[in-house]
Amino acid sequence: MMRTIAVLLTCHNRKQKTLQCLQTLFKADVPENLEMDFFLVDDGCTDGTGKAVTDIYPEINIVLGNGNLFWAGGMRLAFNEAKKHKDYDGYLLLNDDVELTKDFLSKIIETQEYCFKKYNKGGLYSGSTKERRSGKISYGGNVLTKGINSPSYKLVQPSETPQPCHLTNANVLYVEKEVIDTIGFFDENFSHAFADYDFSLRAFKAGFPVYITPGYCGYCKDDHGNNWSSSRKLKNRIAYLKSPTGLAYKEYLYYGRNHFPKQVPKMFVKLWAKTLFPGLWDLKNK
User: Fold this and answer.
1) Are 190 and 69 in contact (CB under 8 A)?
2) Does the structure show a pLDDT above 60 at 283?
3) Whole-model pTM?
4) Burial code of 239-253, b = ≥16 C-beta within 10 A, e = fewer?
């Protein structure tokens, strides 16, 4: 039976990375019974990304953003545009800095078949990525290490078989239609960070299997770095605290209230401790 999926991406001023990602996507092995439509949000790019993509891949639907969508907003716009086209069987979410392996789709399908056999339904399947130079895992699926009521988590190392998790990065993430029909897409209260964690945890709590695929699905550098600012100026550190691409103060606490309400006071203290005493965090994490 033919299956149709929508591939969703968003980009902002990193043309070469975006083109590299798309090149690996279009070189990947695609099963004969799978059709893909492509939706890329050009969120106010000034480096010619949209035109370059159209010139090389005219089949990609370019959706123009206003330049202030950030990652989660861009992905919501791509999803909403895809919904106007047809009722897809699933959605493939990609970060535009991932270099995909040739067989990444087969790993997703293997995980899909595993979940349907084990649970009689599909869910979310995250493809792990690693850094090219070090070979160290960068993104993928995470397990809550202290139970469902604590925000502490760690990355799951991929193995030869699919593995369950609670939280997923959406660098490479396949989402079944049934998940969207039940819980919707990314919460509009997230503009950048935590949208994928919230989404996958909502799916898990709704009873859908949340898994990582076997092996690795691509290469991607972990660009998060230290998630606090070491600036000597307090006003700069506070700006980083509130920035959607920094500590995302409001979004992090919103995420906590939704999933770990008893831990919100600790989460609040942690955010301000990182902001007011960054030197201690630097020492702690050396």
Assistant:
1) no
2) no
3) 0.95
4) ebbeebebbbbebbe
